[in-house]
Design brief:
alpha/beta; 13 helices; 36% helix; binds iron/sulfur cluster; iron-sulfur cluster binding; rSAM; Radical SAM/SPASM domain-containing protein; Sulphatase_maturase_rSAM; metal-binding
């Protein structure tokens, strides 16, 4: 690892999860991702010493099913920023002093109660909302992390979460794990018109001097006004690594079975990947904003030819966001918006930018 590159370290505290969401399937098998960490934290600490500004985000399974490891890691690793991606069921298992040190919590919730509970299980929405209200007592940013399915009305669900007290909202399309579905018809009639309305809402708020917490919009604008993405915006393999509970260092936290994703091991060290993009991404006009979207999807290509439909959705989403750049520039010139307010680095929050 080059000493000058700050890295996002996603630490899988366990492969177990208490839920079985419709698009995910729940826990990893314990022989693939053990349910307790099996490596020596001091070895991880040693590797992290080369990183000038490590960000550590706890991940799983459900990371708070192993609060002991979270506490041990926070007591011994040299991170400058801490966070957690959680389903919100076990926030009480982590003592307040640790929540006080967290910078960001990503709570999984899909929007309105009926959408969230249909995807994730009955009662999940209320449970997450209770956790949100508890976590509001601490000085951390809280991001709603949505999975978007055909049940989603993207405008209604995203605005519902923003109005419910989340600081920011990020979403990802259900286009990797599930059986193929007619994503394009749904996108044309429901999703893309909703995305355009969200972009309009974003620019209306910008005119009032406010930056709405829509992470896909912020992430694309940031790549326009500041640094482009060299590859997947999540940083998979070149700016972020996932440490599995067995000590393997992986390029992506869901690629726990794939050989291409293994970068090394806590015991022996690891090497970051070069941020390379295959065709058609390499010569795509949206490359700067998209970075090939998701490395896992590019490598595994579960959807085969139908992945092109997802690509069309990505391009239409980026186009609609880019359409507000002239307005944003005019607002900067008039001093209504500070250019820096549009800077967004997904590595600091463990988000993917492109849905
Ligand atoms: S829009 Fe599609 S082709 Fe272009 S960089 Fe993204 S994933 Fe690749
Ligand atoms: S966006 Fe894709 S490559 Fe990046 S962390 Fe998620 S699944 Fe892995």
């Amino acid at each position: 690892m080059a000493a000058s590159d700050p890295v996002l370290w996603l630490l899988l505290t366990t492969g177990a999860c208490n839920l079985r969401c419709s698009y995910c399937g729940g826990s990893f098998e314990s022989r693939v991702v053990p349910y307790k960490t099996t490596y020596d934290l001091s070895k991880l600490r040693k590797l992290m010493e080369d990183d000038p500004e490590p960000t550590v985000i706890f991940y799983g399974g459900e990371p708070l099913l192993n609060p002991k490891f979270v506490m041990e890691a926070m007591n011994s690793l040299p991170a400058v920023r801490w966070g957690v991606q959680t389903n919100g069921f076990f926030v009480d298992l982590l003592p307040d002093e640790y929540w006080n040190r967290m910078s960001v919590a990503l709570l999984s919730i899909d929007g309105r109660r009926e959408v969230t509970d249909a995807n994730r299980g009955k009662g999940v929405y209320d449970r997450v909302m209770r956790s949100l209200s508890k976590l509001r007592r601490f000085p951390l940013k809280i991001i709603a992390r949505m999975a978007v399915t055909r049940l989603t009305d993207i405008y209604v669900d995203v605005t519902h979460l923003l109005n419910s007290g989340f600081d920011q909202v990020h979403w990802q399309l259900d286009v990797i794990w599930s059986e193929k579905w007619d994503v394009w018809s749904w996108a044309e009639t429901s999703y893309l018109p909703g995305v355009r309305r969200l972009v309009e809402l974003f620019v209306n708020e910008l005119e009032r001097g406010r930056v709405l917490g829509l992470i896909p919009v912020l992430g694309v604008l940031s790549a326009h006004f500041f640094e482009p993405y060299r590859a997947s915006p999540c940083g998979a393999g070149y700016r972020s690594v996932a440490v599995s509970s067995d000590g393997r260092v992986l390029a992506c936290p869901i690629a726990v079975r794939e050989k291409w994703a293994v970068l090394g091991h806590i015991e022996t060290g690891f090497k970051l990947m070069e941020p390379e993009l295959p065709e058609p991404c390499n010569s795509c006009e949206y490359r700067r904003y998209c970075g090939g979207r998701c490395l896992y999807a590019l490598r595994e290509n579960y959807w085969g030819k139908d992945a092109e439909k997802v690509d069309e959705i990505t391009k239409e989403t980026i186009k609609s966001i880019l359409s507000i750049i002239p307005k944003a520039e005019a607002l900067m010139e008039r001093g209504i918006i500070d250019r820096e307010a549009l800077r967004y680095d997904p590595i600091l929050d463990s988000t993917e930018v492109i849905p």
